[in-house]
Amino acid sequence: MQVSGGTESVRYFVSAEDENEVGVLQLPDFERSRLQAEGTPIRPWTERPNSMGRRSLRSNLNATLSPKLDLGMATNFINVGQRYSLESNSTAGLGSHVFGGPGTRENGTVSGLGTPLNGYRGWTPGYMWQEKTGQEVNRFIWSGQANWRPTRWLTTRATVGNDWTNRNDENLLLRGEGPPLTATTRLGSRGLGRVNINNFTVDMGSTAQYNALGFSNKTTVGAQYIAFKFTSSSTGSEQLAPGSQSVGSGTQLSVGEGTTVQKTFGAFIEQSLAWRDRLFLTAAVRSDQNSAFGSNFQSIVYPKASASYLISEEDWWKAPSFVNTMRLRYAYGQSGVQPGPNDALRFYSANITSINNADQPTIIQAALGNDDLKPERSAEHEMGFESQLFDSRLSLDFTYYSKITTDALISAVLPPSFGSVASQLRNIGSVKNAGLEVAVNAQLVQRNAFGWDVNIATSANDNKVVSLGGTPPQIGTTTRTIAGYPIGGYWARPITGWQDKNGDGLLTYWTDAARNEVFVGDSAIFRGYATPRYMTTLTNGFDFLNRKLRVQTMWDWRSGGLWYNNTERIRCTRPNCSGRNNLNASFEDQAMNIAANEHAARTLDGFLQTGAFVRLREASAQFTFTDDWARRLVRGRSLSLVLTARNLRLWTNYRGSDPESGFNTTNGTDAPSEFQTIAPPSYFIMRVNIGF
Known about the structure:
The protein has 692 residues and is mainly beta. The chain has helices at 29-38, 44-47, 94-98, 125-129, 566-571, 587-597, 627-634, and strands spanning 2-6, 10-22, 51-66, 69-83, 132-151, 154-173, 189-212, 215-238, 252-275, 279-290, 300-310, 323-337, 347-355, 358-367, 376-389, 394-413, 423-446, 450-467, 474-475, 479-481, 489-492, 495-498, 518-520, 525-528, 534-544, 549-559, 562-565, 608-610, 613-624, 638-652, 673-674, 683-691. Among the domains are: 295-451, no CATH class; 473-692, no CATH class. The protein is built from 7 helices and 32 strands. The protein has a 21-stranded antiparallel β-sheet, covered by helices on one side.
């Protein structure tokens, strides 16, 4: 619901939203019977383990106090409470069963306890959902802005804002209600966590506009201050007392607390020139100071410059009549990526060491720090053109960019003789990115009864590591970062072929080369990019009924990258993999399974699969009622009905659940992969907008 209105000097806007969702998961009947037979109480969160409630309140207030002064205030409060089933990526959990994991229909009982698994490997739904896992997030955003125009040529502004987020996590598993895998899983656990994130920003500036030397000039000076603070605390316990839900009732307690603070101060000056509304020049410089910099590095300066020329305004411009405007542009700029708040700091941690066969407390170095640490610096060149064609019914925007990043932050491996930590973050790398971006917007049909517009945005990107500063290549399980190749590119020993030598329909690996039927390369080679290189978004819009009805679809195409299907890889370590000892399986499936699990080379090449896809991302329809019907139906000033559907259809040759579903590894050395991850759901939304 939203309300807006006001006078010429005071305007307001207020909106409120309340949303509740209940997930599709619910307790199976056989689990309900088992829990009841055991005498285990069925908790409310066990019945429906997934739910979400979202409430928001937003308001804007703008006031013009005089021709020289106006003020604005905006607030936004969001509360989200959710309960979700404990699943994660456990190979013993539900995902393992859903994706054809190690569970089978007749797999007996667990740990000799006599508890039937009913096709699941370790944890059945009832056991998993007896653990309550919930989260509540409160977020409050506010900002205030003042604009003062003391003269016709001078404008000053000041903006103050704050973004505060509070998150509370909890989990509860009562004693005697957990999965009977081991003794400890039956003894109960309780955990509480709190996170506070606060971003405070002050932004001030002044702009002077004047004419001089035949140019329209605009000079802007400004400063910005950002303060970031992150605090977290957690308490937990295991082995709860019977019937207790308190952290303090556990016999094994754990606590944690952390605080991170980062501050940034920046100042800039920008000069813009315009000549006869056709030539535009801009130059600027910015200086930043950041608390994350090393103690030996104080500040960094970023320059930028740009030029654009509307050549179609020149008398000498001779072009076909269908070309209405043509603008050429070029820009150069530098930017930076700051180190993490604690990357430059030296840390120590408590430890236990043995002296004379007795444990003694001690302190060890946890992070070496770097007093010379500074931000990564990127220098980017961008050039292109913009054109309006066919009476401005067709617009074309073309951009080529090239960006060189120097002083890239890399964890340099230290020799063991250093006697401390294994690595230190240093500014020693360089990376190059280059690509093309093209945008086309066309008004194909423009009539009151019917309209059709099309927007196409496409891009191609290539990146390459120029240098690692003499450090060894970063090698993970599936990816490597090596000079001359893309960042985090996929590497693997290639499957070079197969041959059913004995004609039995089943491929077999033999150490004897004469009998071996699956062939793998001797060394790992680059197999492809870990992210799509080519992306295109197509938006079609249709207007009907004198533009009262708007129907729109959005299509996405991605190509040029691979995706690590870790779900299939895990499945093929188990007997129920379709590519194992299966006469109906293709030789390709058999070869990739054997190469990953039986071959001496142990390559994951077959599971690095194409990530190309076409997706119907969104379809929507909006009907706007006439003012007369709005007054009749809801006694409002305006009324519209919006129907939206998201993630409707996917076309892909990827063998997993979805080429956009996955997770990032924690060590940073492997590319994102899909591991027993459920594909993104489809959403259907109906919204009524009423204006009073």
